């Protein structure tokens, strides 16, 4: 039976019914590869079709399937035996063009541009989405992203850094001259307990959509999860309104170019996001000062910007960190409709509103906007983000996040989230301001007078409380303060993760071309 993308229950990639598609799907899509060290190798294909196909064929050898990744994941969970080096190959629109696919065929195969809300599509690429996403102009991006056609992205990952470097060296040595565009190294930051964090010091990777049966074995707090239809119950509570389960259609689309009914792929966004850690921490302290927060509650200033404390405690469930369970993900904002606990502009409330976002002209609800994040931190720093250190010693550049995400539509999911949620000063409520972390602002030359800076967000020193039904959003307990500008997009590209059958078809075409005899002239 063909794979149903609107499945109502989690899938097991290793059942006999699933293997026909999971062995053809690349890994890292429905589950992260889980390795702590990555080499993200950007490649520019040769200008001739045969040379381009031959290079893709070589690089595609040994890519990790979803089925293999799931086998290795279960082996590690039960036996603590690590998996092999992970490999994944992604192709950009310029890459498909160099492989010989014309515009008509590409338009038929990649129809994510059929989403009118955001002009950010796979075929248009990251440069074509600059205005829609309010990104910095490409002239301000880092040179590798600014200058080169990034036709391929080969992701190589391993838990052993030295072993990864040797594998990466082998790949680089095998590349033809002029094809290596850039390499971005990623290294996961973790707490003492093994949880992933980012450079601002906050636990990262919460609120992911979940697709497989093994994802429902335990929740983030280690509690057993029971799932009945669309209801997930964890630790005695319920997440009836916003369960983590997602149908495969959120992240997978048929790989039309593979000509195989069991072949699927996914759209992929890569963005290098530099973090000004020192600036963010100084702003945290300035906001705490402005709100006159007492010593025991000063950490709440940064937590209100993120929506969680550093240990993962959601602001909406606790006024301080250390809430049990600290990794709580079983919540929504139904009891905080006035934003008296978690500000409307908080990063996790902006980008994952959990039932609050209104439909726009019948556009699908917000659950269909979710993205499947696979990012990893980059950059070296003298001290771990959670180590005691003076603010003056924190980095202001050179560190950040290699943001990566999968989805079934770039404009419908990541593009919409960035443009209409994070970048909007009027989402979730009018006048709340930008997302403090990833919200981007461009001066409005049409305004009178012209807008040169984003509006200041409004913050409350008091946590919780009550508000009358008709009370205005703005009240005397709020303080205006601008928390933004500490994350800078340094460049990126849009890719597609093709199916393994598609990659194998290029290998077959490459071998056929190599065997084709040279035509002889009539004189001989």
TrEMBL record:
<dbReference type="GO" id="GO:0005829">
    <property type="term" value="C:cytosol"/>
</dbReference>
<keyword id="KW-0575">Peroxidase</keyword>
<protein>
    <submittedName>
        <fullName>Peroxidase</fullName>
    </submittedName>
</protein>
<keyword id="KW-0408">Iron</keyword>
<dbReference type="InterPro" id="IPR011008">
    <property type="entry name" value="Dimeric_a/b-barrel"/>
</dbReference>
<keyword id="KW-0349">Heme</keyword>
<keyword id="KW-0479">Metal-binding</keyword>
<dbReference type="GO" id="GO:0004601">
    <property type="term" value="F:peroxidase activity"/>
</dbReference>
<dbReference type="GO" id="GO:0020037">
    <property type="term" value="F:heme binding"/>
</dbReference>
<dbReference type="GO" id="GO:0046872">
    <property type="term" value="F:metal ion binding"/>
</dbReference>
<dbReference type="InterPro" id="IPR006314">
    <property type="entry name" value="Dyp_peroxidase"/>
</dbReference>
<keyword id="KW-0560">Oxidoreductase</keyword>
């Amino acid at each position: 039976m063909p794979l149903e993308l609107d499945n109502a229950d989690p899938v097991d990639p290793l059942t006999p019914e699933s293997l026909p598609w999971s062995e053809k799907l690349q890994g890292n899509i429905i589950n992260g590869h889980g390795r702590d060290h990555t080499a993200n190798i950007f490649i520019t294909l040769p200008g001739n079709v045969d040379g381009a196909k031959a290079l893709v064929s070589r690089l595609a050898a040994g890519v990790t399937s979803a089925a293999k990744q799931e086998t290795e994941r279960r082996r590690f969970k039960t036996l603590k035996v690590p998996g092999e080096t992970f490999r994944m190959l992604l192709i950009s629109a310029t890459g498909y063009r160099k492989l010989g696919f014309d515009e008509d065929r590409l338009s038929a195969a990649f129809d994510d541009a059929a989403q009118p809300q955001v002009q950010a599509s796979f075929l248009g690429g990251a440069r074509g989405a600059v205005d829609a996403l309010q990104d910095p102009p490409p002239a301000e991006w880092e040179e590798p992203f600014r200058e080169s056609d990034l036709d391929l992205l080969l992701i190589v990952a391993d838990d052993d850094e030295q072993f990864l470097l040797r594998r990466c060296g082998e790949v680089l040595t095998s590349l033809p001259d002029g094809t290596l565009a850039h390499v971005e190294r990623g290294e996961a930051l973790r707490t003492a307990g093994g949880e992933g964090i980012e450079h601002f010091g906050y636990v990262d990777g919460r609120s992911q959509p979940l697709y497989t049966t093994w994802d429902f074995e335990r929740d983030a707090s280690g509690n057993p999860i029971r799932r009945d239809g669309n209801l997930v119950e964890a630790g005695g509570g319920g997440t009836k309104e916003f369960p983590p389960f997602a149908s495969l259609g959120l992240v997978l689309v048929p790989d039309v170019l593979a000509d195989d009914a069991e072949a699927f792929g996914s759209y992929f966004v890569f963005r290098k996001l530099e973090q000004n850690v020192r600036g963010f921490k100084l702003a945290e302290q300035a906001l705490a000062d402005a709100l006159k927060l007492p010593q025991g509650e000063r950490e709440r200033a940064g937590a209100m910007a993120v929506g969680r404390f550093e240990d993962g405690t959601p602001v909406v469930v606790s006024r301080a960190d250390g809430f049990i369970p600290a990794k709580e993900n079983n919540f929504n904002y139904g009891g905080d409709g006035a934003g008296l606990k978690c500000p409307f502009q908080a990063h996790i409330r902006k980008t994952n509103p959990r039932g609050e976002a209104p439909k726009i002209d019948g556009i699908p609800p917000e659950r269909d906007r979710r993205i499947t994040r696979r990012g990893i931190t980059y950059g070296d720093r003298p001290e771990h983000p959670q180590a005691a250190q003076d603010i003056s010693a924190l980095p202001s550049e050179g560190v950040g996040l290699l943001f990566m995400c999968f989805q079934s539509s770039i404009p419908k999911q990541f593009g919409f989230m960035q443009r209409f949620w994070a970048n909007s000063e009027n989402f979730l409520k009018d006048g709340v301001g930008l997302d403090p972390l990833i919200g981007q602002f461009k001066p409005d030359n049409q305004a009178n007078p012209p807008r040169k800076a984003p509006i200041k967000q409004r913050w409350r020193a008091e946590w919780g409380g009550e508000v009358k039904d008709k009370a205005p959003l703005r009240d005397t307990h709020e303080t205006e303060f601008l928390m933004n500008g500490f994350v800078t997009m340094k460049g990126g590209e849009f890719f597609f993760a093709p199916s393994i059958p598609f990659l194998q078809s290029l290998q077959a075409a490459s071998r056929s071309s190599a065997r084709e005899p040279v035509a002889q002239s009539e004189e001989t």
